[in-house]
Structure formats: C-alpha cells, structure tokens
Specification:
Radius of gyration: 20 Å
CATH architecture of the largest domain: 3-Layer(aba) Sandwich
Helix content: 40-55%
Structural class: alpha/beta
CATH class of the largest domain: Alpha Beta
Order of helices and strands: HHEEHEHEEHHHHHHH
Length: 295
C-alpha cells in the first residue's frame, strides 16, 4: 500500500502537455498534500489500474482522482452542484463534515471494464457509490454526459445522512428522482432548453408496491431492471408530491428499520387506505406518461 501511495504521490506532480483545463480548472494536488488521503479497498483497486498516471485534486466536499484535468474539472463543478441540491432537498446541513468523499474518474471503456472486473460489478453499471466514495466513467470522446454523476452523488448523500439501512427501491428511486430534476436544472443554467421527463411504466410491467418495497436485490433481467428503476423513481415522485414533509418523515422511518406500512403512517397518517389503497392510486399514476416537474 505504501509503495502504491508513493508512486501516486510522484505521478500526481507530473504535468502533461495535452491537459488543458481552462483558467478555472481543477487545481492538481500531489497525493501526499491532499487534505484526506484515506483510500478504501475499492479505491486501491481503482488506483492499481495504470497507477503511475493518476492525478489528484480536491474541492470543498470531494477529493478527485483522475487522468486529465479537462475531464475532472466539469466533474468537480457538477459534483458540488448536485451535492448542494440534494442536501437542500433533504434538509440536511453538511458544513460540519470533515472527511471528504473521493471520486475516481475513469476515461476509457477498457479501464472501466478492468475496474468492473476487479470490483465484481454488474456489466451494465456505469457508476457506483461504495462506502462514501464514487467510481464513475467519463469518456472525453462523448459530449453527452448524462445523469450518472448526479445519481451517484445522491447515493452518497443518502448514505451519509441515513446510513446503509435505506431500502433498495427508495435508494435507487430517490437517486433517479433527484438526478432527473437536478440535471435538467444544471443544463438550463448553462443555457440549454432542458426539461425533466419521466415516461410511464407499461401496465403489463407494473410491480405492485408491496413487491417493490420487499425487493432486496436487483432483478436479473435487464428489462426488469429498467422497470424497477423507473417505477421506484415514480413512487418517490408520487409520495413527494403528496407531501414534502411527510415524505421526509417516511424516508427517515424506513432508514431506521420501520416496516413500509409503519413509515407510511408516520409520514402520511390516514391519507392512504393502507398498502392496497396506496397501490391502487399509485398504479394509475405510474402507468401514465408524465412530464416531471422542475425542482
């Protein structure tokens, strides 16, 4: 481990001529001068891929490990933006946190595939949050970056605020919900006519709320994975629209180990006629094509 860190510290001070990042670019920092040098086992697996070529930098809430500054700079801007948005949405103050989360930025599909293999990730995974750190791919050859970063930043914030007890559907559903709105707002702030959209779930594919709530592992079929993500996002959106404060009470209850019905009662009282009443109303909502409201 020490040998790896020494290699990284040396490599981080090397500049390359093809790494133009602009006047407001993310400053490069030697590894041994980072304010937070803690590296998890998964982080070590990432840094062992082309170990002499990693560079490092940091912002208010994150430490970045990257290959080129012109790729890491926009990631750093987006990461801080998403972090502020999600923290505000959840009504949480992060000003007293001292440990920074690490973001590992891969560029080439080959490097990402090598990391997927090392980390035993599903082949469709485009980014992952683990133990408070993020691992993502940003291929500089593609202009469209998508919502992966916002989605994974949301997982990170959920982990910090609520721990590891958040049910799978809620974790993924809220990450989709937050990233859809935040990404559209981010694009509009850059002068693009972006509007968040949410397509309906096919009636034949609808997953009853009780089954969705009991899901603890991802479906094996890729089409079922898409339905799981889409419907989870819609349930979050449906409950948030019903009552913002109620949804946060519901969220808190589930994260503390409450059963779905108990958390629903805490957040919404007698608004729904139990699980069956919620399922009946939600099915109508989820199977429509909806334009998601702005955050």
């Amino acid at each position: 481990m020490l040998a790896l860190l020494l290699v990284l510290a040396k490599a981080s001070g090397q500049a390359t001529g093809d790494d133009t990042r602009g006047i407001d670019g993310l400053p490069e920092v030697a590894f041994d001068r980072l304010s937070d040098k803690s590296v998890t086992a998964l982080g070590r697996a990432a840094l062992e891929i082309r170990p002499t070529e990693w560079k490092h930098g940091e912002t208010t809430n994150f430490v970045y490990h990257f290959f080129h500054g012109f790729v890491a700079t926009p990631v750093s801007v987006e990461a801080e933006y998403y972090y502020r948005v999600v923290s505000k949405e959840l009504g949480k103050d992060t000003s007293q946190w001292e440990r920074k989360s690490h973001i590992y930025i891969f560029e080439s599909p080959e490097d990402w595939a090598a990391f997927q293999k090392k980390a035993s990730l599903d082949p469709w995974t485009g980014g992952i949050h683990a133990q408070g750190d993020l691992f993502i791919q940003r291929n500089p050859q593609y202009k469209f970056k998508g919502r992966t970063l916002g989605h994974e930043i949301t997982h990170l914030v959920i982990y910090r605020f609520f721990g590891a007890g958040v049910p799978l559907w809620l974790n993924e559903g809220y990450a989709e919900y937050a990233s859809i709105g935040a990404y559209a707002n981010y694009e509009r702030a850059r002068g693009m006519a972006a509007r968040p959209q949410a397509a309906g779930v096919a009636p034949a594919d609808f997953i009853p709320v009780e089954k969705l709530a009991d899901t603890t592992v991802y479906p094996e079929d890729i089409n079922q994975v898409r339905t799981f993500y889409s419907e989870s996002e819609k349930l979050v959106r449906f409950l948030s629209a019903e009552s913002g404060p109620g949804f946060l009470l519901f969220f808190e209850g589930l994260s503390q180990g409450n059963k779905f019905e108990t958390a629903l009662q805490k957040g919404y009282g007698g608004r729904f006629d139990g699980m069956s009443g919620l399922n009946r109303e939600f099915e109508k909502y989820a199977t429509q094509d909806l334009a998601a409201p702005s955050h």
